[in-house]
Amino acid sequence: MNHTQSPRRLLDRFGRLHNNLRISVTDRCNIRCFYCMPADNVDFMPKEHLLTFEDIERIVRVGTTLGIDRIRLTGGEPLVRRDLHLLVQRLAAVPGIRDIGLTTNGILLDEQAQLLKDAGLKRLNISLDALDATVFKAVTRRDGYERVLLGIQAARAAGFSPIKLNAVSVRGLTEDQIVPFGHMARDTETIVRFIEFMPLDADGQWQRDKVLFAHEIIAILESEFGPLRPVGANTMVVVANGPLAIIGNAATHAPAQDYEFADGRGRIGLIASVSQPFCASCNRFRVTADGKFRNCLFSHEETDVKTTLRSGGTDAEIAELMLACIAAKNEGHEINSAKFVQPDRPMYSIGG
Asked: Are the beta carbons of 342 and 206 closer than 8 angstroms?
């Protein structure tokens, strides 16, 4: 390449630069959260359709030439993929990769936390929607609450800090979990991130009136703990029929806005994907477990990269597919528009 020529980057037509790749390693899972999967009779991909570790490493190596420096491994449940720590080890050795994270439900984490840490995993997000075994089972439609707690303990013992918990908030189901999570955030080094319930469920039963909105979560927490103060760079927005809220962290492209409790003890985050989308600062895209690039979680279009990988395609051809995918990205997901149509793929099939 001519040294006077600027390197190509994953820049879309709205000026958003993409450096964050989320990689789904499987669509399989050991629980059945209603906002993600059917309860039974799930049609999983045949294993031979999944990207191999070699495929994933090659995609990442090509991506680094276009500016990718952050990776997050997702599923399904990524820890059901055999020897996942070996993939982490391979990706950690790729020049240019600065950060590797993992999102897991935590059920298998007690067995794998140390292996993952030793392999080079930097950050850990654990999905846990309730601190009560009964509510946990109502959400997941499976047992496993105690295993998740063991997984959190193992992650702390392995040296992951801070650990982030992702809690999907659903009206009529999880309101009474918000204060216990607040206490957890104050009493441990855990950062609890409340996520608005999104229309990505397999059964297509999402309704807007089931969303527990960010400003309501703030109000519940403040009624128990007093004022919350935002952390970092923020965008001020007025929530309809609600108080002034501070949502989004455009400076860091983070989907969550963090808050500290007034006495400085503990931190929580809010991901207001429905009420206050962070599309304007989005810097991420995805590759599904079966080898499709997606430029948005809610996209209706995919770019097939697996065929190119498996048919002798060059790195340059893979790079062009990546660039084309980002170039086609829409301005936003339009959840709050009459034009919104829920994607055909549910969350577990896309990759969280």
From this structure: yes
Q: Angle 250-251-252 (CA atoms, 0-180°, nearest 5)? A: 95
Q: What's the count of helices (H) and strands (E) in the chain, helices before strands?
A: 10, 14
Q: Where are the beta strands (DSSP E) in the chain?
A: 20-24, 70-74, 99-104, 123-127, 164-169, 191-196, 228-230, 235-238, 244-247, 257-261, 267-271, 284-287, 292-294, 303-304
Longest dimension (CA), the chain: 62
Q: Judging by DSSP bridges, how do beta strands 228-230 and 257-261 pair with one another?
A: antiparallel
Query: What's the structural domain count of the chain?
Result: 1
The DSSP annotation for 109-153 comes to HHHHHHHHHHHT--EEEEE---SSHHHHHHHHSS--HHHHHHHHH
d(CA 299, CA 12): 15
What is the tens place of the pLDDT at every residue in 187-215? 998 999 999 988 776 677 778 889 999 99
Give me the helix-helix angle, 315-327 and 53-64, nearest 10°: 70
Per the CB < 8 A criterion, the answer to whether 221 and 228 are in contact is yes
Assess if residue 77 is contained within a domain: yes
- 15 lies in some domain: no
Residues 6+ apart with CB under 8 A from 346: 36, 37, 200, 201, 202
| Radius of gyration of the CA atoms of the chain, in A | 20
φ/ψ bin of 244: left (φ > 0), alpha (ψ from -120 to 50), beta (otherwise) = beta
Do residues 100 and 71 make contact, with C-beta atoms less than 8 angstroms apart? yes
Q: What is the pLDDT of residues 25-65, one digit of tens each?
A: 999 999 999 988 888 888 899 999 999 999 999 999 999 99
**CATH number where 149 lies:** 3.20.20.70
Residue range of the domain that includes 217: 20-350
4 assigned to some structural domain? no
Cα(first)–Cα(last) distance of the chain, in Å? 36
Residue 123 C-alpha from the chain's centroid:
12
Helix, coil or strand: residue 232? coil
